[in-house]
């Protein structure tokens, strides 16, 4: 499948639809998930056009993962979570619904189930 430049995250990057921004730099954007599975559920995306993990350069991937690594503990502290789930889907069959590469940062608290 070719990258769709009008996917919802591409529209966010173009400023065509709003998002609750958590972090931004030249290469990446992080924002709150609109349907959070836990308090603080955040998505980190590269600004480069990439449909999934296999459609991104190692350089862009490294920058994106560095942001995941930096933000995750900050988000964990901010919401008082004890752990952090990092999740990433490739392809509709795997559960991907937005076809712009993204990493979920999902704070987890002991004994608290994820929302569906
Ligand atoms: P995935 O493709 O990994 O299954 O999940 C896409 C994620 O994007 C979902 O968790 C969904 O809630 C989130 N999402 C979909 N549309 C929007 C939107 O318009 N704004 C925000 N902030 N998140 C969205």
TrEMBL record:
**Root EC class:** transferase
List the Gene Ontology MF annotations in alphabetical order.
methyltransferase activity
Q: Which domain of life is it from?
A: Bacteria
- Which parts of the sequence form the motif Histidine triad motif? 100-104
Keywords (alphabetical) are: Methyltransferase, Transferase
A biological process (GO) annotation for this entry?
A: methylation
> Domain named HIT: which ranges?
8-116
EC number from the UniProt entry: 2.1.1.-
What is the name of this protein? HIT family protein
Annotated organism of origin: Methyloligella solikamskensis
């Amino acid at each position: 499948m070719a990258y769709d430049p009008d996917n919802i995250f591409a529209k966010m990057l173009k400023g065509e639809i709003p998002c609750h921004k958590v972090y931004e730099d030249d290469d990446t954007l992080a924002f709150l998930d609109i349907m959070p599975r836990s308090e603080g559920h955040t998505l980190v995306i590269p600004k480069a056009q990439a449909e999934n993990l296999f459609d991104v350069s190692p350089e862009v991937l490294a920058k994106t993962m560095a942001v995941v690594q930096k933000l995750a503990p900050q988000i964990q502290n901010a919401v008082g979570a004890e752990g952090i789930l990092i999740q990433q889907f490739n392809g509709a069959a795997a559960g991907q619904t937005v076809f712009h590469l993204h990493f979920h940062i999902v704070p987890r608290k002991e004994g608290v189930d994820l929302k569906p």
